[in-house]
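Example record used in the benchmark description.
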Amino acid sequence: MSFLLLVLMIAVTTNASPQVRVRSHTELNTVQNIVLGDVADFVDLNKSIVDVLSKYILFSKPIQIGEKVEFSGETISTLMRSHSSWLQLKEKPQILIPHQVIIENVGFKMTAIKVKNKIQEHWQALCQCRVQVEDLVLPFIPTWKALSRWDLQMGSEIIRGSFTLPVVIYNSENQEQKLWIRGRMSLFQKVPVTKRSLNYGERIETSDIRMEEREITFSRDSCPEEKSLIGKKVKRPLALNEIVFNSALEKEKALNKGQEVKIFIQEQGWEVGLQGVAEQDAYIGDTIKVLNSKSKQSILVRVIGRGEVQIQ
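Model output (structure tokens):
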């Protein structure tokens, strides 16, 4: 019995006919002619046929923002079947149309998913990490007019944890009102994590760490890159599965006073190296003075590695 049922199910699935399914309720956000693609879904249809059918103009009178119109299924069926392109189709798909079809122009509706995506895209560009927005609470939108657009006002700094953002909404008459959006921001980044406990003074080896995505929302410290971490000495014990931050590593000298250094000058597309002498001890990232061996002049540079500096 079960085998017969399975065969019947396969047969039904295989013989499913192409369909045009008109939705009972469609929301629009632009003022334009209403075409079949605005109100219908196409199932198992060739793309070239969909391209033609979706452009059928059903109503040449655009629906204005805030306006809602109702049509009978019979009216839409008549409009479709009388269209010249429909008459030229050799194999016509099945048409499924509800008894009543409602088309509503709601303007630029503010939805949680749209707001969430906009926030994440904006802050994602500001950080080398993954941004996640949660617990989003949208404001009550007044019913004075349907929205023609809305603009989130976000700064250039990433907000960590709970946030409140202003959003300006505009209606079709360009009247505006400022409202507020609340939510919570979490930041995730691939960071070095210990694969074993490390004691004070140990040097990190490749086998001691792995790169793993962890939440760093409230971390005020940064992590070294994996390649620069190897060989560094820890200045405090680190537990198993602990994130390795820069503050846990001993800062070792990159230059000693009087040491010869290589001075790099970088411009667009090219790089020049000069010789110099360090005028003070320094660590990587420090800004110091070095004596240019050729010009005998002191210049300000940034330490970028052991025995290497770069002109600011």
